[in-house]
Each structure stands twice: as C-alpha cells, then as structure tokens.
Request: fold
Amino acid sequence: MEHMSPGEFRKWGHAVVDWIAVYQQRVEKLPVLSRAKPGEIRASLPPVPPQTGESFEHILADIDRLILPGITHWQSPNFFAFFPSNNSGPSILGDLLSSGLGIQGMLWATSPACTELETHVLDWVVDMLGLPQGFKSAGQGGGVIQDSASSAALCALLAARERATGFQTNERGCDGRLIAYTSTQTHSSVEKAVKIAGLGRNQLRSIEVDDRYAMRADALARQIALDRAAGLQPCFIAATVATTSSNAIDPLPEIGAIARKEGIWLHVDGAMGGTAALCPEFRWIHEGLELADSYCFNPHKWMFTNFDCDCFYVADRAALIKALSILPEYLKNQATESGAVIDYRDWQIPLGRRFRALKLWFVIRHYGVEGLCKHIRRHIELAQQFAVWVRQSSEFELMAPAPLNLVCFAHRDGDEFNRRLLDRINSTGDLYLTHTLLSGRVVLRLCVGQTQTELRHVENAWRQIREAATAIRA
Amino acid sequence: MEHMSPGEFRKWGHAVVDWIAVYQQRVEKLPVLSRAKPGEIRASLPPVPPQTGESFEHILADIDRLILPGITHWQSPNFFAFFPSNNSGPSILGDLLSSGLGIQGMLWATSPACTELETHVLDWVVDMLGLPQGFKSAGQGGGVIQDSASSAALCALLAARERATGFQTNERGCDGRLIAYTSTQTHSSVEKAVKIAGLGRNQLRSIEVDDRYAMRADALARQIALDRAAGLQPCFIAATVATTSSNAIDPLPEIGAIARKEGIWLHVDGAMGGTAALCPEFRWIHEGLELADSYCFNPHKWMFTNFDCDCFYVADRAALIKALSILPEYLKNQATESGAVIDYRDWQIPLGRRFRALKLWFVIRHYGVEGLCKHIRRHIELAQQFAVWVRQSSEFELMAPAPLNLVCFAHRDGDEFNRRLLDRINSTGDLYLTHTLLSGRVVLRLCVGQTQTELRHVENAWRQIREAATAIRA
Reply:
C-alpha cells in the first residue's frame, strides 16, 4: 500500500472532522460509562494484522462498529466523574496541526517556534491566572508544558532532591536521608514520584489534615523538626490547590513560610483547581504561591485543551535544568552552546517532545481571557447550585466544603447505601460519578467541568441521584 | 467567546486538513532547517494574550505568518538529521480521532477500548516484527505505548531496581549498591534514567565497544565480576539495537547469556532500528532478544506514526506493575478489583493517558504488514546506495558499518573540514544532516527515514555534499 496522497488525506481528513462534529452533537445521548465487559472489545478485533492495506472507509467505519461500544465518554456533558478532561474545537485543531507539522521540540534548534511559542504562551498564562511574576521566563524562572501533573511532580522532586544535595544525588545516588512531605489528601502521583526518584516511601511523610481536609501547617512544622532532630534531610513539600478527593486547598502562606524558613522546595499542585484563577474572584486559592519553588496546573483538565497539556512553572529554572540535563555529542549545536536559547529537553523526563503549545495558543486566542473566565465561572456556579440542592435536601449531606467545581456529598443512609447508589446511577448510562473516602466514609463526587455541561445536565443529575436513592429504599 | 459549534468545527477542521495537505506538497521546497535567530519568533508574538476571542481565520493565518519561519521541517524528504520522526495520513487522522474522542485511558474502566485496542495491537506488533512470543499479553508479558524510549528505559530500570531488591527500594529508597550497565554508545536517556531513579551516575558503568561500536560482552562480564567482588549489586543492563550515533548493534546473544546467568534485568532499546525487523531479512538484528526482560522501539521514529508512540514490552508484566502501581481510593473500581483487566496507569510514569493505539492501528491497517515492510526496505536500500557512493568516493570514507538506514561518513580532510562542511550544507536549507563523534573523530550522519524521501532526494544530498566540499577546498 502506498502512502496516502494529499488528495486522499484531504478527503478522509474531512470525513474524520465531520465524524467528530457529529460526535460532539450525539455524545450527550450515548451511555456515559462504557458497558463493555472485560475482553469484549478485543474479541471483536481480528486476531492477526492485515497483510495488505485496507481502505480508509473501512477503517473509519470500525470506529463506530468496534471502538465506540468501549468508550467512556469523557466529553459527555453528563460526565461528572474523577476530574474533567475537557477539549474544544480550537484545541483539537491546534493538536491536528501539531500532528501534521510533525516536528520535534527537544531542542530550540529542532524547531525554534515550538520552543519560543511555548515559553511565550506560558508567560501569558502567568498573567492570565495572576500567578507570581517570578515564574516568568524574563527572570530566573520559567514555564514548560509537561504531559501530566504526575510528571511535573516528579521533575519538581528531582530538582528539589538535587538542590538539597548540591546536585550530588545525580552523581552518587540517594542516601536514605532525604525526606518529602505531603498531606494525607495529596494525589498519589507524589507517592509514585518519591518511589521513582529513589527516596523510598518510608521517607514520605503524610501530614494530617484539618476538618476541611487541608494540610495542617503546624503538624508539618512539627514533623520537619522531628526529622531534623533524627538527622534526616527534609527536601520537598507538595501542597495542593484543590485536592483530587475533595478540592481541599492547602494553606500556602503558612506552608510556604515553613518551606522558606527551612530551605525546603515547595511544589504546588493545582492540576484542576488552578484554572479557577482565571477568574479574579477565585485568585485567593493561590495566595502564598509566591513562596513556592514550583507549580503546575492542567489546561487538559479544565481549560478546554485536550490531553496532554500540563503547565509547569519553576521559580529557579537553573535548578531544574541542572537536575535533568544531558548533552550527548549528537545533540550539540551552536544555538545550545550560545546559551541564548531554551532547550526544553532539559526540563522534562523524555527527550522527544510534541508541539503542544499550538493547541494552548489556539484555545487562548479563540476564547480570549474573558471567554475562558466566563465558562469557568459558569462551571463553578453550576457546582455551587448543586451544593445548594444537597444542602437543602433532607436525604443528602455535603461531606466537605465545595470551594470550586467539585461537590462531595453522601446519602445519609451510610456507606453501603452510597456504594449501591453509585452503582445504580452509573449503570443507567445517563451520568457518571465516582467516589472517594473522606474521614473513612464513602462519599460521592460530582465534578462540573465538561465543555458542554449546562444547567439542565446538572439538574438531570440531581434528579437521577434522588430517584435512584428512592428506588433503593423502596 | 462561545464554544466552537459543530458547524464551525466542521468548517475550520476542513481548512486545517487542507492546510496540512498543502503542507505535505510544499514541504519539499521549504528550507529544511529553520533560519530563525534566537528570540525572533517570540518578538513577532503579541506581548499580552487577547482579552476577547479572535476569529479562527485569523488564528490559522498566523501559522504561515508567525510559526512556519520557526519550523525545522522534520517531514521534509530532505531531512536526514538525527533519527527520523515520520508521520503519515492515516496516523494523523487516527490521532485526530483521539483528540476528538478526548478520553482518558488510565484505567481499563475509563475507556475499555483504549486499553484493549492497545494490548491487541501491541500483540500484533510482536508478530509483525518477529519479536519473542513471551512479550505477548497471553503469557506473563505484555506491551504498552509509552511517550518515548526515554520513558521506556526509565520504567525498565525501575522494574529492574525493584526486582533486584525484592521490591524494597520503593519502600526504603536506594542504598548505593545497585549498578547499571550500558556501552559508551548507549543513548543518553539511560544515563538520565539512572540519575532519576536515584542510583546515581557513579553507579553506571560505560562498557567499552568493539571496532563496530557494539558493546563488548567480555568487557561487560569482567565489569560485573569486579562489581560483585566489590560487594555491589548489578541490576540492569541496557543494550541497543542500532545506536543513535552509528546504528551499532549490540550482541544480544552474548549479553543476554550474561544477564541470565547473573540474574540481571536486560533492557533492549531498538528505538529506531527495531522497525527494520518488519522485513524478514533484517530480523537478525533481534537475535538473542528472547533473553531480554524488556524491549522498546518507536513507531514514531520510522513507522509512519506521529509522535508520541513508543512500543514497550516486558517479559514479566508483574514486575513492572508492582514497581509502578498506586491505588488511591478515588481510582478504585470493580473491573480493577476483578483482576481481569489491565490498568495501564501502572505501566508508566504519568497517570493520564491518551488513546494512542488508534493511530498505530490506523497505520497498520492502511499499509498492511507488506506495505510497511516495502517502505522500510526501500529506506534501507536508499541508505545502502548512499553508502556505496561514499565507499566509491576518493574524498569521503565510511566511518562505521551501515547495517540499516544510517550512514556515518566523513571527508578525508579531517575534523575541522567536516565541521565546516556540515555548517555549509545545513545553511543552504536544501538538506539537513547532523554529526556525531566516533573514536574521537567528527562524523557526518545521513539517516533515511522520512515518509516522502525518494532516490532523487538522496542523490541530491550526495551531490550537494560533494559540491560543498569542493567549494570549501577552493
């Protein structure tokens, strides 16, 4: 089979675009959570690959026939599970251009526009969210797009590890003395990073939280003192702006003061919640962020930019670069040697990198800062409306503060009832929620953040939840 | 600004597809290496983001106006630098569908088709390349798509680290006794992984190579014995099937025998070279691979699948999963608990994951196994033709064996001449080569692997190289 000609690409490209446009319209009617059984999708696929090429018409038809039954529709306006992973037309098209250009951005020299647009747009985002100016590239800091907040946390931890040891851990390996701090509510990616980086889980302290599920700064300070007294070396604190479980917001001013006083790297994970700072009235969530060494949030969660796009900032880019840099002969070039350029290879785990700034640039330009703010504000309003309904209900109760777009709630009939309720709701296909545990109790989570979610979807969710509860009690 | 409507998406989607189709036709005429100066692209961008939304027409026009001058055209048929990063129509469209569906594949439950298609296609690829059956998911092994060979090497190292220490390094951290082995020619990503994983660069042994730049198995065995005698714990060997510098192929049967005897994890990096095994006559490159614990190669380099798509295989998936697994409450679900499904979250560093199997599936189906083999064979023929010209020339010489699609060569007038030659060639914009050092000498690399590269492009490259040499001597 020959390469697809530009003419064929045009024809089939239009067909795929049309398929997506239709999908955007019908996704609301599809069962949100896939009903496929384990192994069912595989069983429908041919056991061996085709020896000769197939027509694109046939390939595309299989998306409906074989793939859609196994899709959980993250773009459905009835998707309220986990965190959102929303997308948008301009983002999809920016990503399409990235695929079509097919360049590598590992070095400035391998496509200057890839590096410079990324630096530029990430500087824009600092102002859009009112982040500390120290994260901008004009000073000692800078931003980079990572694939995920997990990778951002790992990079932050590595920079922290190296800074704490005079960049000697890269040479000599971990020595068992380095200690990292999270709260009991911190995302699991930090525990994963601590294992990957060779510190070991035993060197990770889970600091207790207050009744709002936010890290207790006094407990953090106490633990650091204990560790220092034991001859250990505190090197990394991970705080969270809106935890995954319940959107708890760790007290950055207090934690930051401790980090500064103790000389410990403070990383702040704003994976979903950070986006709220587009709206001036929610910028308080980042109060104290100027004390942080690094920060990340994910436009691929709640800013209409399809995965992957995590914006990761450091206040001192030299520490990050020194922790991650390698320079084999075959990557040497005049631009790198001049010192006048950024080579993003040294800001991340992988070497290769895609032109991801295009989609973020397209999103910001399509919506404008005000447009983005308007949509985010609307999502928060919808979640707050839902919280009001829960609060007013006699059957249900709020299980945590709901500062942003996530509502944690439960039926008053207890854990077993709530588990049955969740299964029943999700089995309808009409909406999809997930759960967490808070203070040992089973809690349902409703997170508003999909591009197409409107009031009627949240109203419908609330109605279905109540009807399911009634049916179980009957 | 409102969300882009399905109708607008259709209109602008067609426009972007058409832009890419035109790009595919004109890329050959564009200067391969961007001529932008540091800061030039940024200087053309507005200092602040737009407050209100802009028209998509305006956004798209800026691709030509602002971005293209800063692009180094990896898809040009005159791109012979580094390794290829080729793409194709079916791949771009598979990736477009992935963006449009916008699902997360972190768990089986979050879209069963994403996981099952990936497992299925990676099993196909085992047969397509004639890889060991032990890498298939039906037994103890399995495949997963990573973003890059760098991440695959890191995951392999982490599994090796944990297996060697009874999965205790995850708990207690590195202890300074673990040793890893590469050759002096191994890709820098392994050194980076050794640092990230907390072993430390001092614990990485660079084994000397033979006159073909392949790892010397006898030297490896000697070094392992020395380390054991010193009370250290050898845990990881990284071998390469076609090194980045020169396409050297490490002797897997000998290295594998040592790894088995010593109980050391053997990872084999076939990032570019592995694709050659599509053709039965090149399967010898993988001889001995059945002795490896893990293997990767990159369809995003030389198999017409746009970045990112690295196929990573392990012979014992349990070791990998145990090394990388985390399970917070909010990710628990019945399918995971049943044990009947794969959750790829535990096979990689990040949590989130894109539906990358779609593009690989599209590529395999569009070309068929025979079609892919035909194009790869043709690339190798072109490189071999170039090697013949070099060999027959009195001015140039081959600097390493050229078993596949990369030719390392140099002008006989020495290092300084070759550096000037490279600069002169690349400044024309008519082609792009990069260099390496072999045995301390400056060597030019010509790598054939772009989708549209034909005989006439390689002929033109050879003509231009000779003319540039003549001009410098004059």
